[in-house]
Amino acid sequence: MKCEHCTRKECSKKTKTDDQENASVDVPSPAHENGEKGEFHKLADAKIFLSDCLACDSCVSAEEGVQVSQQNAKDFFRVLNLNKKCDTSKHKVLAVSVCPQSLPYFAAKFSLSVTDASRRLCGFLKSLGVHYVFDTTIAADFSILESQKEFVRRFRQHNEEEPTLPMLTSACPGWVRYAERVLGHPVTPHLCTAKSPQQIMGSLVKDYFARRQNLSPDKIFHVIVAPCYDKKLEALQEDVLTASRGSRGTDCVLTSGEITQMMEQSDLSVRDAALDTLFGDVKEEEVRRHDGASSDGYLAHIFRHAAKELFNEDVGEVTYRALRNKDFQEVTLEKSGEVLLRFAAAYGFRNIQNVVLKLKKGKFPYHFVEVLACAGGCLNGRGQAQTEDGCVDKALLQKMKGIYTDIPVRLPETSAHVQELYQEWLDGTDSPRVQEALHTAYQGPGHPANSRDIKW
């Protein structure tokens, strides 16, 4: 049985109707064992189906399957319960980082403004026993800024003998995993080496924040709230700073839907609270996003930066032109009838397959492609805006898009905190620490060539 994204003749993935017992990981509901107020009466078992994973590479090994099974609410509650015990040596500082594409889901689901949804979510998590709740936007700032610099460098170094273009984004774990595990060379050399926001947030929390708090990284339990299941797989692959002494940057990933399930079943008394920052007692005043319709907007930010750096052209509003479908769009910079820059956004695996086919044939006209595994972008992640039968809740998703569009945009270059971190945490913008903390390398396919049969 193939999953809907599969390009193989055989696929090891399960569907929601095939072998339910083996296809899912059950998370027992926290019970009223001691009648303590604030526990959950009927928290439905969370099930993670392999068909929810968007990385189509036949795909999760047995070992990874066991590890993914630990990326759930049960592990989260285990740490919360440990913190209630008398043995303080086993206590952990619980930090939760929320992806900006998750907030519109909470806002739409509970009919709140995005700011009120953020405060409600933060208050709920702290009522459970979470110590800090962060926004991952600052990590995306770093990822975008490093991607901008890398694109300009690649553009200047590009030649026919050693092509460095097109540059393909590296923020989507479903796409990156697919590129590494299935496609390999010649695709992986085109992947941007900038780490994803989740990976960078892991380093910020387990390295920078840990040192500010005089904590060992292994004393922090770091949870990411994300819109898709592929973030769970990404957490298993993270290569964190050497300074983190082997501690994984992200210990657990919970989808927006899993958190909502907890909120709906909770009888806790919740007070709204402002999001924390990595900088001591400073609080996040307002929710901000980057310039993307449903994602962090790598294309728009890199396009403007490249136009200015390479051609001294100031670009205001970025104009997208849909080509094959609404999930494949292009943006061009033209001068005197000449195309100087040609960028594209390719969302969903059907568009990704077309990109890869043309790239392999050497007939790909783009300098840069923002690649996302989810059709419709990150807001449409499988971990949120789903109906009970697993389909997209189109009405809710449309509402989420409107909410996300209304969030004020913050340019990464304008963040004083990011510039402060470059100096204080990374010893400058071009230091070896930047390469170590903010960039990564990619592996080739992990399966023998004869175990794949990809038809484009």
Explain what the structure shows.
- Helices cover 36% and strands 12% of the residues.
- The protein is an alpha/beta fold and 456 residues long.
- It has two domains: 56-138 and 197-265, Rossmann fold, CATH 3.40.50; 143-194 and 290-438, Fe-only Hydrogenase (Larger Subunit), Chain L, domain 3 (3-Layer(aba) Sandwich), CATH 3.40.950.
- The protein has a five-stranded mixed β-sheet with strand order 5-11-10-9-8, with helices on both faces.
- A hairpin with a 2-residue loop joins strand 8 (321-325) and strand 9.
- It starts with 19 loop residues before the first helix and ends in an 18-residue tail after the last helix.
- Residues 9-19 have a biased composition (Basic and acidic residues).
- It is found in: Nucleus.
- InterPro entries: Cytosolic_Fe-S_CAF, Fe_hydrogenase, Fe_hydrogenase_lsu_C, Fe_hydrogenase_ssu.
- Keywords: Nucleus, Phosphoprotein.
Topology (elements, then pairings):
Blueprint: H1 20-23, E1 26-27, E2 46-47, H2 62-69, H3 73-82, E3 93-98, H4 103-109, H5 114-128, E4 132-135, H6 137-157, E5 167-168, H7 173-183, H8 197-212, E6 220-226, H9 230-237, E7 252-255, H10 256-265, H11 298-311, E8 321-325, E9 328-335, E10 338-347, H12 349-361, E11 368-372, H13 394-406, H14 416-424, H15 432-438
Helix pairs in contact: 4-5, 4-13, 6-8, 6-11
